[in-house]
Amino acid sequence: MDYKVIGSCPVCNHELKVTEISCNKCRTIIRGEFELSKFCKLDKEQQYFIEVFIKNRGNIKEMEKELGISYPTVRNKLEEVRKSLGFVGQEKPAVNKKEILDKLSKGEISKDKALKLLTE
């Protein structure tokens, strides 16, 4: 029977560490503290969602069909996965084009600086 590595403690929900790995062929054993992949922190449903996401190349329409869920549900599940992977709060702030152009017209920033801000 194949058991999957779990990423959090079933008792306290704290992150787990792998302390031993071994080779099935030569029986080499390595002990230490190893970090688990971020994806181990996802529950089974989230892992399956990511498999479907990759399989469908991120095409939400195809995901809707395969999973039998609506567009908003796909988006919500994707946001849950982003949170579980620690990507919340890492979004780039939206570029305020009007503000940049106003600063340019007032001479507060150079055209090179404005161009850089608009293209980032």
UniProtKB/TrEMBL annotation:
Origin superkingdom: Bacteria
Pfam families: DUF2089, Zn_ribbon_DUF2089
Residue ranges occupied by any DUF2089 domain in the UniProt entry: 9-40, 42-87
Protein name from the UniProt record: DUF2089 family protein
